[in-house]
Amino acid sequence: MKLLIIIVQDDDVAGVMSSLTREKIGATKLASSGGFLKRGNTTIIVGVEEEQVDIVKDIIREKCRSRVEMMPSIPVIAQGIITASEPLEVRVGGAIYFQLDVEEFQKF
Ligand code: 2BA
Fold first, then answer.
1. What is the pLDDT of residues 72-86, one digit of tens each?
2. Which of 31-57 are b and which e, b meaning 16 or more Cβ less than 10 Å from the residue's Cβ?
C-alpha cells in the first residue's frame, strides 16, 4: 500500500476530489498554505493499493493546472530610502506529489 501526499491549488481541489470519489478512492483534504507565497492551498492524503497509484496520477494530470501568480511588491529600505520591490511573477503547480510506502494500515 502507498500513502500519497498531494499539494494542489484550491481552485483544482473540487475536480480532484470528485474524480477520486468516482473511482471509489478514499481521500482526506487538509487546509494548508505555502511557505513561499504564504497563500492557501490544499493537501490531499490518499491511501491506495499500488495498482491504483496510476489512476490517481492521471486524475492529478487532468485536473491540476499550472498558473502564474503575482507576488505583490514589498517595501524595501536601502540607504535610508524606502522604495517598493518589483511585483514578481511566480508559476505555481499543477501539483506537488509525494509517494510513501505504508508499513501498516488498520481501520479500528
Ligand atoms: P509555495 O511555497 O507558496 O510556493 C509557490 C510557488 O512559488 C512554487 O510553486 C514555486 O514555483 C515558487 N517557489 C517556491 N519556493 C520558492 C523559492 N524559494 N524561490 C523562488 N520560487 C519559489 P510549486 O513548486 O508548484 O509549489 C506549490 C506549493 O506546493 C508550495 O507553495 C508549497 O505549499 C508546496 N510545496 C512545493 N514544494 C514542496 C516541497 N518540496 N515540500 C513540501 N511542500 C512543497
1. 888 888 888 888 888
2. eeeeeeeeeebbbbebebeeebeeebe
Is a pLDDT exceeding 90 seen at residue 87?
no
Residue nearest atom 35 in ligand 1 by C-alpha distance: 96
Q: Which three cell numbers stand for residue 10?
A: 484550491
Mutate to test the pocket of ligand 1, among 92, 97, 98, 100 (most ligand atoms within 8 A of CB): 92
Ligand 1 pocket test: pick from 6, 12, 36 the residue with the most ligand atoms within 8 Å of its Cβ: 36
Using a cut of 0.85, tell me whether the model's pTM lies above it: yes
Question: How confident is the model over 24-46, as pLDDT tens digits?
Answer: 999 999 999 999 999 999 999 99
Q: Does residue 80 line the site of ligand 1, with CB under 6 A?
A: no
CB of 59 sitting under 6 A from ligand 1: no
Sorted by where each starts, the structural domains of the chain and their CATH numbers stand as 2-101 (3.30.70.120)
**What is the rounded CA–CA span in Å between residue 21 and residue 10?**
17
pLDDT in tens, 1-24: 999 999 999 999 999 999 999 999
